Amino acid sequence: MKGGTLQINWHDTKPVLTLDFHPPSGLLATGGNDHDIKLWAVMVVKESKKGPTTTYKNSLSYHSSAVNVLRFSPSVSLFVPESDLDLFQSAGEHLASGADVVWHYLIRFHRKDVMDLQWSPDGGFLISGSIDNTCIIWDANKGSVHQILDGHLHYVQGVAWDPLGQFVASLSSDRTCRIYVNKPQAKVKSHEKLNYVCQHVVSKSEPQRQDDAKAQLPKAYLFHDDTLTSFFRRLAWSPDGSFLLVPAGIYKLSSKSEAVNTAYIFARKDLSRPSVQLRGASGPVVAVRFCPIMFHLRGSNTAAGSFKLPYRIVFAVATLSSLYVYDTESSTPVAILAGLHYAAVTDIAWSPDARYLAASSRDGFCTLLEFENEELGSPISTTERAGVVVAMEIDRAAAAPGSADGEKDSKPIEVRREPVVPAKSTDSSKPAKKRITPVAIV
Question: Which regions span the lipid bilayer (predicted)?
Fold first, then answer.
């Protein structure tokens, strides 16, 4: 891995609030306090040890306020930035020139700025979260409001859409994470109408008992309150839908102990409580993002642990000042990067080929990291990925709405799936890597 913070004028020295990679072209799009979206080509200088660099390509200057979040649609041709939700349409490969970028919709309904948004798996809808305390599900084809979710009591700073389409999740500074399940209404023109209803409101948990104490311990909050010095709490689903990763977590071992920063992992089979936590963060976690590519296992897939997956999933966790890279085969980070920026990190993004990881900051700069020579592992093939998709669809068909209210017991919740991807063969002369069990909440 190589790279670092690029000392270029990203947005006229103003805070860079968001970034995302364009799937077909690999262009990096950034948005900031200068009201602009800028497009950059990522390049690697051969025989250079300094890592990748970027070249400015184009600007989209249509915005009346700061660009808080931008995300490309999975359908490729659409992407959304801005607090007022502008939809742009592009031919993809011509995005850098700007010749084929067409302003598609300006859809307004939020009363205040949008802090986060996410597309539905098919690109037909998107969900946004705003500091007006609401989430809105939009019909991207019609450019209209489809449904309003108004259960939060304070700013909504993160939203995520389940890749299987069954759930959406939101995270707010009211210290709650809300899980909504799709209970379709009557069919309209042979299509079921999306209808998300709140299934779980996750806010508190019981601290672990010490020395077999019989006294009832008070429940502790799982998330930071509104004093967290960030407007972003960007949560995300794993690409296979196995689990939900939620930032801005705090955890107490006992009622008298100090709170530590963490990110929580919610297993799909029980979204009513977190099953695993990632302790040790240097500060509050403000954003998480999954690598779009899944990898072969590096060791034995029979080792004990909370993740029982026949493949490896890699994800990045950003605190206000540091960046961590994890995978599902180990509880310790694959990489830790600190001291990259002088101000808070605001967003992170993976390139479509998993070669680059980018982070934006309020100090006006971005960090760009490059992973070389299958450093993250051996990607699963297209055929194997298709097997994963089939397994996902089977799970979706088998899981009726409300099935996530599974029985609660004292055992760690495990994410299990029947092996559909063969592990890459390993050299028998090399010892298998030891697996470390993540901390599980009981």
Answer: none
Q: Return left, alpha or beta for 402; rule: phi > 0 is left, psi -120 to 50 is alpha, else beta.
A: left
- CA dist 58 and 308 (Å) reads 44
Range 244-261 burial, b when 16+ CB lie within 10 A, else e: bbbbbbbbbeeeeeeeeb
Q: Return the SS3 of 125.
A: strand
pTM of the shown model:
0.84
Distance CA 288, CA 274 (A): 16
- CA dist 111 → 79, 83, 108, 138, 423 (Å): 21, 10, 8, 15, 50
Q: What would the pLDDT profile of 88-147 be if each residue is shown by its tens digit?
A: 665 444 455 444 555 556 778 898 999 999 999 999 999 999 999 999 999 988 889 999
Give the range among 179-193, 225-239, 345-359, 423-437 with minimum mean pLDDT. Answer: 423-437
> Domains in the chain, ordered, with CATH?
2-210+218-440 (2.130.10.10)
Cα torsion 253, 258, 260, 265: sign: positive
CA distance readout (Å), 289 to 149, 165, 175, 206, 425: 24, 18, 21, 28, 28
Nearest-Å Rg of the Cα atoms of the chain is 21
Cβ atoms of 270 and 383 closer than 8 Å: no
